[in-house]
Design brief:
423 residues; TIM Barrel; eight-stranded parallel beta barrel; 14 helices; binds L-rhamnitol; binds zinc ion
Length: 423
């Protein structure tokens, strides 16, 4: 069965290669280009945003539904799950950590006192695999975030705690970047907001600005750490007002020369993240993506090859932004196998990039520049059914990553052998 599939994958690829050559696309070059794109896997799909530094209760307006068995219970189990997931995703990856995944070896270290050494196991693991690490302060799932405010809190003491946490996070990220030889993107997302209509929308934003300014006060080497701020439209319990809205952070990031993180689940349903990239990149120092999928109230469904993700990838490729925009994932689903969720989501992102790279960009641009909008639409429509699947399968096979749904066999075997033992 497998051998026969291998043969048909090879045969289908040969035909696909010819078809693409006819329209001026070199599939061999495309595969090489795709293999260079790095996708940052978010650590928190592995345990339903549980973390290691508290009981695992989730707040901050985030919710994970589903009770699929086999959830990782500690750092070692998480790392084993990432190892399997990464072996089944073609191309390069990094890991995106949260501060709540610290491992202080039996000690209790609060978030404002975290140091790089509390992440040494993560750094050793990443160094062995020669992958980079990204980082996020965790401004939720903590008693000091209980009333839904952190950096914009009215109380000076609570604000101070979170400022210190943000400073600690930046130093940890810088240590990761230094040790691993690749800058660590250090992202800030806070849940601050109101369930119901606020009277004063201004004061929390002013407090947030001064808190962020203080947090970012320490100059750190940008070759070790890249700061970003992440906006949101609403969360559960912050339906009426979010302090760190999109407009707020665009202004903040541009005026402070910080990076911006765009999470695809954090916008109005018809708002296009893809359309924003070429506008923002002209004025911003760095862009980080949280590729996600919004479904009604939830902003974090597993990424699939949706129109939105395809358009995003097309913009990255067409706008030649792949070296300036970092791609991270952000979703959490506890209703399916969690390792499979990583593989499905990361492969979808990678497939979207492949589809974008398989387009004859020069030809399309020439039509547009010549005013041939009819031709442009006809071509774009036809490209959708070109044999990209055959190139994808060949790409997976070459990268030593099981093609088709064959990767699922490995996940199922792991489920029986490893996940089943996690009661
Ligand atoms: C929350 C943000 C943020 C989180 C992680 C867990 O809405 O998207 O990125 O998903 O910090
Ligand atoms: Zn996000």
């Amino acid at each position: 069965m497998n051998k026969q599939t291998d043969q048909s994958i090879a045969a289908a690829y040969e035909l696909a290669r010819e078809r693409y050559a006819e329209i001026g696309v070199d599939t061999e070059q495309v595969m090489e280009r795709l293999a260079d794109v790095v996708i940052s896997l978010h650590c928190w799909q592995g345990d339903d945003v549980g973390g290691l530094d508290h009981g695992g209760d989730l707040d901050g307006g985030l919710a994970v539904t589903g009770n699929y068995p086999g959830k990782a219970r500690n750092g070692d189990e998480l790392r084993a799950d990432y190892d399997l997931a990464m072996s089944l995703i073609p191309g390069k990856q990094r890991l995106n950590l949260q501060a709540m995944y610290s491992e202080p070896d039996g000690k209790r270290v609060d978030r404002n006192a975290l140091e790089p050494e509390h992440f040494s196991r993560w750094m050793d693991w990443a160094a062995e695999r020669e992958i980079g690490l990204d980082f996020n302060g965790t401004f939720f799932s903590h008693p000091k975030a209980d009333d839904g405010f952190t950096l914009a809190h009215r109380d000076e003491g609570i604000r101070r705690f979170w400022i210190e946490h943000g400073m600690a996070s930046r130093r940890i990220a810088a240590a990761m970047g230094r040790r691993l030889g690749t800058p660590s993107w250090c992202n800030v997302w806070i849940p601050d907001g109101y369930k119901d209509l606020p009277v004063d929308r201004r004061a929390p934003r002013e407090r947030l600005t001064s808190a962020l300014d203080e947090m970012f006060g320490e100059a750190l080497d940008p070759s070790h750490v890249r700061d970003t701020v992440e906006s949101k439209l609403f969360g559960i319990g912050s339906e009426s007002y979010v302090v760190g809205s999109y407009d707020y952070y665009v202004g903040y990031a541009i005026s402070r020369r910080k990076g911006l993180c765009l999470d695809m689940g954090h916008y109005h349903p018809t708002e296009s993240i893809a359309d924003k990239l070429t506008a923002l990149i002209m004025y911003l120092d760095g862009l980080l993506l949280h590729v996600s999928r919004g479904v009604h109230w939830d902003s974090d469904h597993v990424v699939i090859l949706s129109d939105e993700v395809r358009m995003l990838a097309e913009e990255l490729v067409r706008g030649e932004m792949l070296d300036r925009v970092a791609i991270g994932l952000d979703f959490f689903d506890g209703s399916i196998n969690r390792v499979a969720a990583y593989v499905i989501g990361a492969r979808a992102m990678s497939k979207a990039l492949l589809l974008a790279m398989l387009q004859p960009l020069e030809k399309l641009r020439a039509m547009e520049h010549a005013g041939d909008l009819t031709g442009r639409l006809a071509w774009l429509e036809d490209l959708k059914t070109m044999p990209a699947g055959a190139v994808w399968d060949a790409y997976c096979a070459r990268r030593g990553s099981p093609p088709g749904t064959r990767w699922l066999d490995d996940v199922r075997a792991y489920e029986t052998k490893v996940l089943a033992a996690r009661a």
